[in-house]
Write a structure and sequence with these properties.
With about 325 residues, the protein is of the alpha/beta class. It is built from 14 helices and 13 strands. The protein has a 6-stranded parallel beta sheet with strand order 3-8-2-1-12-13. Strands 4-5-10-9-11 form a 5-stranded antiparallel beta sheet, covered by helices on one side. A hairpin with a 3-residue loop joins strand 4 and strand 5. The longest helix has 27 residues.
Length: about 325
Amino acid sequence: MTNQLLTEDKAIMSIRSFFREIPFVFIGTGMSCAVDNRFGMEALRNALQENKSLSDNSKNWVKEWQHVLDALANGVDLENALNYVSDQNLLKEIISTTGKFVSEIDREYAHRIAKDEVGWPAMGIIKKMYDTLPDSEPLLHILTPNYDMLIEYACEQMGITYSNGFWGGISKSLDWNVVSLALLEEKMNVRGKSAKTVFYRKKHCLLYKVHGSLNYFFYRNAIVENNAWAWFPPEFVDRVLITPGLTKYQSLQQYRQELMQKPDNAIEKAARFLFLGYGFNDSHLEVYINRKLANQSCHGLIITRDSNPRIENIVKISSNL
C-alpha cells in the first residue's frame, strides 16, 4: 500500500478485505482521551507534579523526585522523566496517586455511560466485530495498556460477554483455564436416531489489561480483581498498575505470568491486527508488533487522530500495514 497511489476506492476495498477476518485489537490511551483528555499522559503528569506528598521534604525519596520534576520542567516526557525513579516507596506513592487520579475520572464516566449520557467512541466497531464473529472461532481478542475501565463499561452496555481471566466471588482469582471451561456451551447434536452431547464455545471477548487495571490488586500474595475496591481501595492492598519509567520493566517481570502470558500466546497465533488510538509507545509490546507486522508481513490497520515518528516507521517497514 505504501508504494501505490491511495484512492478512496482502493481504501474502501482494502478496509473491506481487512475485516473479512476478525483482527486482534490493540486499544491505546487515545481511545480513552476521545472520551476525556484527562485520561491522557499530560493530565497525569500535572496530577503528579501537583501532589504535595511526593515533594515532602521528610521523605527519603525527595531528591529522586526532584530529578523527575527538573526533567519535566526541561520538556522531558513523563515516560522518560520517571526513569529517575528507583525508590520503591516513591514508586508506591506514584502508583497510589495515579490510581486515585484515574479512578476519579473513571467513576464519573462509569455512571454517565450506564445512563447513556455518553458513549465510548469505539463501541460501534467493537460491536460490529463481535456480532460477526464466526462460529468456528467466536473470540474477539482485545489488548490494552489502559488502567481505566471504559472498555468494560462499554461491553456491559452493548451486551458483549467478556472475560479478563478472573473468576470467583467478590475477590476474583486469575485462572484462564477455568474461564475457558465456563465459556463452553453444552448442546445436543441429533443425527437420525442417535444423539450426542457437543460442547460449543460461546461468543465472547477476551480482554488483556497488560499494565494492570483500576480493579486489580495484590492481595494475599496473588493478583485479584475486586470491583468494590476500584475507586476507594483499602490500605491493606496494593494496586497493580504498571506505571511509566524504567521500573515498568521490573514490574512487568514481576507480574509477567499473570499479565502477559495469555496475550503472548494470542498475539503469536494472530494473523492481522487493528490499532485504535494506540501510539506505539510501549517498547516491550513493540517486540511482538514488529515481529508480526514487519518480519511476518501480517496485515494491520492503524486508526489514530495523530501520527508520530514511531507509527511512520512501523508503516514504512511493514508491507501489509
